Amino acid sequence: MTERTFSIIKPDATRRNLTGKVNAVIEDAGLRIVAQRRIKMSKAQAEKFYEVHKERPFFGELVEFMTSAPVVVQVLEGDNAVARYREVMGATNPAQAAEGTIRKLYAESVGENSVHGSDSLDNAKIEIAQFFTEADIVG
Ligand code: ADP
Ligand code: MG
């Protein structure tokens, strides 16, 4: 089934000029980038985006990191896009990520791990709506 998922190229990756390299992995995996914008996330945006993690010990560090440099927010479209992108991203901790995944190739640590991808279709819809309107998405 064709789905849309939400992606963020995180500050550790934009800082190292890896936007194009990350996008190449995404596109080579058969996912289509149907919306994309480079933004500086506000503290309020980052706190809202990662609200589910607010009780976790790394929450403050995560918000600090996500607002430390520009990010690229994206909508990806393709067959089983949610699960497919999670596969392409690799495990949260790059030390555990499979060969060829974005996190294995580029991530620096479990916190500074280069990309975000939605973990369910419901969350994808919520996350896309936080950053894009339907008119921004050209499939
Ligand atoms: P994922 O991004 O793979 O879905 P989680 O939803 O568990 O991972 O965590 C959200 C983000 O929080 C991670 O991508 C990472 O940036 C950060 N994070 C997760 N675990 C840790 C940790 N133990 N220490 C620091 N940051 C973490
Ligand atoms: Mg997650």
Explained architecture:
The protein is an alpha+beta fold and 139 residues long. Helices cover 40% and strands 20% of the residues. It has 7 helices and 4 strands. It has helices at residues 11-15, 19-28, 43-49, 59-66, 81-89, 102-106, 121-131, and strands at residues 2-9, 32-39, 71-79, 115-117. The protein has a 4-stranded antiparallel sheet. The longest helix is centred in the C-terminal third of the chain and has 11 residues, at 121-131. Bound molecules: adenosine-5'-diphosphate and magnesium ion. Adenosine-5'-diphosphate is lined by residues 53, 58, 61-62, 92, 110-111, 113, 116, 119.
Set out the fold topology.
Layout: E1 2-9, H1 11-15, H2 19-28, E2 32-39, H3 43-49, H4 59-66, E3 71-79, H5 81-89, H6 102-106, E4 115-117, H7 121-131
Antiparallel strand pairs: 1-3, 1-4, 2-3
This protein binds adenosine-5'-diphosphate and magnesium ion (MG).
Adenosine-5'-diphosphate binds at residues 53, 58, 61-62, 92, 110-111, 113, 116, 119.
Please outline the major beta sheet: 4 strands, antiparallel
In N-to-C order, the SSE pattern is EHHEHHEHHEH
Poorly predicted spans: none
The strands making up the biggest β-sheet line up spatially as: 2-3-1-4
Approximate shape: globular
Helix content: 25-40%
Bound molecules: adenosine-5'-diphosphate, magnesium ion
Alpha-carbon Rg, integer: 14 Å
The number of distinct β-strands equals 4
Structural class: alpha+beta
Q: Give the N-to-C terminal Cα separation.
A: 15 Å
Count helical runs.
Answer: 7
Average pLDDT level:
98
User: Strand share of the residues?
Assistant: 15-25%
